[in-house]
Design brief:
254 residues, Membrane-bound Lytic Murein Transglycosylase D, Chain A, 3 domains, two-stranded antiparallel ribbon, 2 strands, LysM
Length: 254
């Protein structure tokens, strides 16, 4: 059984127990599958621990679903399971127009071009003041680029773009990841490169969420740092990086 089948047959229809069983069985055969780990943690982790206790009310509009709301407010439609559980929903496919849902955190109306300012301003109202580390610009954690790196990064970027145009998106994203590791500032006005970069950002955010759900906070923060160098206005990374820093601080107090 594929992950897609488990998601559409079980998770979207509120068959959480069946979905958990199927995911665990799938992971026995594919123990390193990130998608399976991602959905399993949404089923087993405490939603308030994952998304935070602070929320804003949202009145459901026509055409909205937990998936569209997760995409809009959490940065990934596949986070519909944990968002539904956050709202005590036993069936994510059932959502009533006009009902009021809890949306984690506060919606940021605008995001500054610098991730430093964004990360400093996005906070839970009830939280204590941010530690200094929460206001460090993400790119401070990115290794310095050696003189030879930009040239190699451009080469990898060109190769990833060729793969993308051939339809090999997964390989293209993996190669672009190598390019960004060498030169996080790698840019191109090519529309295909822009689209590929967005795909890398979305994929990296999902990986960071897996790490966050598993409380590998340093690794998650490091990945969000990389994302924010590539796209400083990517709001989900700004928000969840800040939450990860807050959670890390709380854990260090115990």
């Amino acid at each position: 059984m594929s992950i897609s089948t488990i998601v559409h047959r079980d998770l979207q229809n509120g068959r959480y127990a069946d979905g958990e069983t199927a995911l665990r069985r799938y992971l026995q055969e594919h123990p390193k599958d990130r998608a399976a780990q991602f959905f399993l943690r949404q089923l087993t982790e405490n939603p308030k621990h994952v998304l935070g206790a602070t929320y804003s009310p949202h009145v459901v509009q026509p055409g909205e679903s937990y998936s569209t709301l997760a995409a809009k407010y959490l940065g990934d439609p596949n986070l519909f399971v944990v968002l539904a559980r956050y709202n005590d929903s036993t069936n994510p496919s059932l959502i009533r127009v006009g009902s009021t849902l809890r949306i984690p955190g506060s919606r940021v109306d605008s995001v500054d071009t610098t991730a430093t300012a964004s990360a400093a301003n996005v906070r839970d109202d009830s939280a204590a003041p941010q530690p200094a580390s929460a206001e460090v610009a993400p790119h401070d954690d990115v290794p310095a680029v050696s003189p030879a790196s930009p040239q190699r990064a451009r080469q990898l970027g060109d190769e990833s773009l060729a793969l993308y145009r051939q339809g090999h998106h997964e390989k293209a994203v993996a190669m672009l990841d190598q390019a960004f590791a060498l030169d996080p500032q790698l840019k191109s006005s090519d529309p295909d490169f822009v689209a590929l970069s967005r795909e890398w950002v979305a994929n990296s955010h999902q990986q960071a969420m897996v790490l966050y759900l598993d409380q590998h906070l340093d690794q998650a923060i490091a990945l969000w740092n990389r994302i924010l160098v590539v796209d400083p206005s990517y709001e989900p990374a700004v928000v969840y990086r800040t939450r990860a820093l807050e959670l890390k601080q709380r854990l260090q107090q115990y």
